[in-house]
Amino acid sequence: MYTQRGQDGIDAIVVADEGGWRAAALSHSQIHPDDRSTDRRIGQPRKLARQHGLADRYDAWRLGVSERLDRFDLAPDLACHIGSRKWFRGLGTMIALSALAVGFWPSFGPLEAAPAMRIDDGARDEFRSQMIMPLALGSDSGRRMGATLDVTPLRSAPERPTQQFIATLSRGDSFARMLQRAGVGGGDASRVLALVGNAVELGEIPAGTQVDITLGRRSQPGAPRPLDELSFRARFDLALEVTRTGGNLALTRVPIRVDDTPLRIRGTVGSSLYRSMRAAGAPASAVQQYLSALSEQVDMDRSVRPTDTFDLIVQYRRAATGERQAGRLVYAGVDRGDKPQVQLMRWGSEGRFFEASGVGEQKSGLVSPVPGSMSSRFGMRRHPILGYRRMHSGVDFRAGHGTPIVAVTDGQVQAAGRMGGCGIAVRLSHGGGLGTRYCHMSRLAVNSGQSVRRGQVIGYVGSTGLSTGAHLHYEMYRNGRAVDPASVQFVTRAQLSGEELRRFRAALGAIKGVAPGAALTALAPTAAETTSEEPVREIDKLDAPRPLR
């Protein structure tokens, strides 16, 4: 290796190796001349020595420290030499680094950001003056004029001269408690209860009735406000108003004109009788009553065709004030062409449906006395207690203790009480020589001589008399002789006759004379109602439609 100076004053190092000559450029600061060489000739190789500066000394120190640390080995493989000093040194290193990492673990709490600007109380009040908050949330924002020395503070805030609000009579509530909650004083409330009680029964005021109440100015601070006016709808045809006149409360009855023309609805049966009736505007409760009454009289699947016409009439009331009220079903019919196929009208205090001929609704078949299944049938069997074969003159039903027992059809109670081995029992007479008996009851629900309807509870299942457990023993008799209850399917009907039949037919003719939809028209105002109406203001006339010319 030798040096060769170039034209730019930089020596080039020429290194000879086996593969040939390579040149490397060095700066003058990296060349340490050999002052001991006195016979320097041009073109002769020069001997170079590295200059030992600060960087060289730092590199040498770093290399030495690295070699010593490598020999010390602070992070050995913990899978090797387990239990040695080198292994424990590595374990200590791992624990120290883990503790350091846990110590510098960042927090996940929210960072507080500095506000964009400092807001003092004055600026905050200025911002609040521009806010809009609902009054229902207690808003007190908005720009106001600041108080000056001319403003005199009030000792107390003035109250409204009157308060008007609506109180609602809730279900299970009383009229007196409603007045108390509304803030009516005790004296005024007692006077109102006396006045209203003389006009209507307080207990008959329906739940949900809204009462308009107006309270006046207090006579002194802390005293209850006096009642100035109270009004509400006591009945569908009556409104009551209580007003203060000359310091005393007085009641005014306001009769409301009501029309009781029933509502008649007709239409084609179609694919669904229920949907067709609802689409025609029939109330849901009336439709249910119609289907129930019709199913007791005819077979709905076979006797009613899609091309037939249904005809129903319900009780309906129209008030002059615009309210309407629908009642229960009074007539159910089916027409085929121009001829009526079924005509049923509600008649009597019990609300039964009767045919146009005066025959009552048909009760087809018997209902089960209890919801349980049959455990023992009619016929000869071995008695479970007496131990010998004897006639089982009825059928047994499985049922738990206390299960209600119902009458299988309409009848009259002939006897009710203990009947020997039958225990507590009830005997019913159904007319036509038919009778039934229900045995082993735990207690009775009817008395002797009482009339019962089909499905009415007459007692409860027990185990009295010759019984091994709670069940119902059910017997049926025809002309005093026991028969198999499972073989009998009879019907019951009521029959009108004489004067009652004539009145029934007259009422049927009158109700069928009602035109369909006649009850839906509004009531025409009478002369008195027209004169009592308030005059129309000129500004209201602008909104009224003008006739075309």
What would you note in describing this structure?
With 549 residues, the chain is an alpha+beta fold. Among the domains are: 56-94, no CATH class; 163-255, Nuclear Transport Factor 2, Chain: A (Roll); 259-355, Nuclear Transport Factor 2, Chain: A; 374-487, Glucose Permease (Domain IIA) (Distorted Sandwich), CATH 2.70.70. The protein is 21% helix and 30% strand. The chain has eleven helices and 26 strands. It has helices at residues 54-72, 85-103, 121-128, 175-181, 186-199, 273-279, 284-295, 300-303, 498-512, 527-531, 538-541; strands at 2-5, 11-17, 20-25, 163-168, 210-215, 227-235, 238-245, 248-255, 258-259, 263-268, 309-319, 324-336, 339-347, 352-355, 374-376, 379-382, 389-392, 395-398, 404-406, 411-418, 424-431, 434-444, 451-452, 457-461, 471-478, 481-483. Strands 15, 18, 19, 20, 21, 22, 23, 24, 25 and 26 form a ten-stranded antiparallel sheet that branches. Helix 4 runs antiparallel to helix 5 (186-199). The longest helix has 19 residues, at 54-72. The radius of gyration is 53 Å and the shape is extended. The protein starts with a strand and ends in an 8-residue tail after the last helix. The relative contact order is 0.06. The model is unreliable at 1-19, 21-29 and 35-40 (pLDDT under 50).
- Taking the alpha carbons of the first and last residues, their distance comes to 126 Å
User: What top-tier CATH class of the domain at 374-487 fits best?
Assistant: Mainly Beta
Characterize the biggest β-sheet. Answer: 10 strands, antiparallel
Using the 3D structure, state the CATH architecture of the domain at 374-487.
Distorted Sandwich
Give start-end ranges of low-pLDDT stretches: 1-19, 21-29, 35-40
- The percent of residues in helical segments reads 10-25%
Mean pLDDT: 79
Number of helix segments? 11
